[in-house]
Structures are given as C-alpha cells and as structure tokens.
Design brief:
elongated, 4 domains, 31% helix, six-stranded mixed beta sheet
Amino acid sequence: MTQFKFNFGSRIRVNRSTPKKNGHLLAGVLTLAGLFVYDYITLPAWNFRSPAFIFMLAFALFAFATIDQIFTLSINRISKTAYMLGTLLIAYVLVFGFLSSEFLNARKFREQIVIKEVKDFSSDFTTIALNRIPVVDKETAQQLGDKQIGTIQGLGSQYYVDPEYTLVSSYDQIFRVSPLQYREFFKWLQNRDDGIPGFIRVNVTNPTDVTLVSLTEGMRYAPSAFFSQDLQRHVRFKYRSKILSEYSFEIDDYGKPYWVISVIEPQINVFGGLNAVGAVIVDPVDGDTQYYDIDQLPNWVDRVQPTDIAWAQIDNWGYYINGFINTLFNQKDMLQTTEGYNYVSIEGQTHVFSGLTSVGSDRSIVGFALINLRSREATFYRIGGADEYSAMSSAEGQVQDLGYRSTFPILLNISSIPTYFVSLKDQEGLVKMYSFVAVSNYAAVGVGGSIADAQRDYMMRLKEVGMIVDDQETYKTLNLTVASVHTAIVDGSTIYYLTFDEDTRLFVVPLSVSLEVVFASEGDEVQLSFFDIDGNVIIVDEFDHLSVDY
C-alpha cells in the first residue's frame, strides 16, 4: 500500500511538470509568432532610442507572461520575470523620456538649431527673377495632375496621383513632382510585375507646362505597393536600426525618379531633439538603396530635413528664449511661428519659410524664419509687418467683386522691399490673377492679369505710399532712339510696341499715356520713364517725343 502511494505520487509530479514545460514552450512560440507579425506590419527601428521598439518588446513580454499563465494555470517565476522586464522597459521609456524633455532641457532644445539673425533683408535675401516666381501651389498642382491622368484612357482606373507634390529643381527649372500610386491591393496585384508607369511633373512657373512622364521601366517600389514591394518595408529590412522619417519623391538632374527617405536621430539625451542625420535614396525601379550622410548626399537632393521637425526646432528657438518656466507665466520675449508655411526654391535649393510672431499677438509678425531643407541652415529676418493671412485678405479685397481666393503667400525681395506674392484663383481653382503685397504695409497692394502687370501696379502703389522714390534702381528715365514701331488694339485701346537701338527690350506704351506716341517713327529721339523690373517687356508710364510738344 505504501509502495502504491509512492508510485502514485511520483506519477502526479511528472504529470504536473510536463504541462508547465509545454506551456512555457507554447507561450514562447505564440509570442514569437505574434511578435513577427507585429514587427512585419508596424516596422519599428530596432533601436533602443526608438520608443516604438521598446514598447513592442514590452508588449511582447506582457503577452508572453499572460499566455504562459493561461497554459500553465499558474503564476510562476517565468511569467513574473516577463512582467517585471516589461515593466522595466516601460519605466525606461518614461524615465528617460522625462530626462529628455523640454522641461529639463529647454536651453538645449533652443540651441539645437543655429539661426543667423539678419536685419538687412534687402542685401541678404536673394532676389528671384519674374520668370522664376512659382505661381502653382500644391492645390493647383493636384488639380492639374488629376486632369492630366484623366486624359489617358484606363490609367485613372488603376492609379491615382500622390497628393504630396514635392518641390524640386531640375533642368534649371522648378517643378512639383508626384508619382502615380496603386488604387488598392488588387490593382497592385494586377500590375506589380510592370510597376507604376510614370509620374506627374508640373512647372510651377507655368501652369500650362504639365507632363505625365512615362518611364521605360515601371516603378515597382512605392508606398502603395504591398509585401516586399512596399517602399517602407523594402527599406526597413535593409536598415533595421535606422529611425526613418519623411519620404519625398524627387528627380535628379536627368529627370530620373528616386525616393529620398530622411534618417533621424535623437540629439538630446536618449529620446529628445530629433534631427535628420542623413537619407536613404531608393531607385523605385530596381529597388537599389544607398544611405548617405548629409554632407555626402548627391547635389540633386533637395529635401532631407522633415518639415515638421524643422519647424519644431524653430518653435523651440522662439519659445525657450528665457527657459521653460517663462513659457508658463511671464512669456517674456517669446516668439512662435504663424499658422502656415510655404516652400520657395532659392539658387536651386528648396527652402521653407514662415512668419514669426510674438506669443499672443494678433495678425502681425516680427520677422521671418527661412530654413534650407537640405543643409538645415536657418535665417531669421527681423521685419515687422502683417502676417500671411492679412496679406491674403488684402489681395482678395482688391478683387472681391470677382470672388477670387488667394493662395498662401511666397516671400520675395522686390526692389529691396519684403513682399508677399500670391496667385488669385477662381472657384474652379484656376489661376486668374496675381498680386504683390508689402509685408510692412499691406495697404500697398498690386494686382494684374500677369506677373509683370501685377508688379508694375505694385510698384506704383509703393510709390504712392512713399515706400520707394524715383531713384535709378527702381524708376528710370531714358532717352532712346526708336528702331521700330508696331501697334495693336487690345480691349478696345490702342497699344504701341516700340524697340530701340540702345535697349534690346520691348517697350509697351498705351495711347492713354501720351498722345505724342502717335508721332513716333524710326530714328526719332524719345524719352521714357518706367519701373525697371526684371523681364524683356517693359510697360512705360511716361512718354515724351522730343521733337513734338503736345
């Protein structure tokens, strides 16, 4: 009887230990399977400076501990250890997140970006020629691109145009470019071998120059593709530890498309102060990838710094001028960016700019911040005036009877005067007119059906309000010899077109300017006064035939 009890007890101990071992093993297998699926879908960076990765590990430990308890029907040492490790990982994120926060590192966050402060806007801000002013904004580019894809039968049913439209410089021109994307899974499944056939290219200085660029080989790697052709998954599996950020579609100087993916790293303690340190460039056709540090990037790359990170750094620079506590109470000397921003290409480099305003101010600015999205070079122009939305309202007020709506402004240097430039669009989103608005006095507004007309009207307004005088730089008076005269009837008015021996430009003289233009002929000496703007066509404001006195 005693032997029977011993054997029975021995059998019980064996039967209890075996299910536990099997439970641990099964819990581990299920957790690893779930971890694989979660990692494949979310694609976090395997980097302990990435909270997403740490939370994934903590979640896996909690899941393992819970499943283990279910299968073993016990709270054992292994499940307790898993709970403890998961809790430690969460605590690691919370503690070092706090140690990396603005509350403890306000000065470091403010000094993360170095900003050159400039008070002389006219000498530092590059003047953009009239034929280089972007008149097509992102919204207009989207409309033009959608119309372009609709002209090709069957293409719109398989693809749509990515709405992002990156601003790039190529062929010595400025374009907004955006690739086609698969509409959904089955469209990808049907076309995955051939890839995406092309991309939209819109010349931002000419709304009629819209092209669907067809590729000899399709782009197989894209954000809208699936499985191994998904762009993020393709890059992630090659660079497991890099923290990836913003994706931008760009073209090189030969028009070949690439994806540029920013790589960021925290620069303040463990998690704080994200900043771009390089980029992964992907050939969307064959999937070839290459990582470059910022100082080694190809010259054609325009955008590396993610816009949201760049503006967070500008806000930190303005916010933490007197530490963190100052942001809660006195708010002395604090600056913040205005609600919107825009892009401008200067000397082949893409910049983003926005107004800076004092905290609590209303519809006014103290200056502008301009950031190079490749090099992160930043400049603060200290200029008082109206904010962008005030300028938009002022421009719309000039054409309120037509109901045109303004695009978000672009900052320009017009005759050494900080100036907003906007396009005015009708209800269909088509650009109809253009407007220039002085930053320091939004009552000085010029509008016109062409950029040249709008600038001429703007110069007249500046002259009227005393912001410019008739100096040699902006307003010229020349004595010239007539080479040829031509006339045309425009909107019921006679217009004279004159060329001169001493100047290769075409001069336009409306009959309303002076009756003496009627007597102009080849070889006559005349005197002209006009605003000397960029371009080959000059509109004359004053005309005097030196041999006629009327």
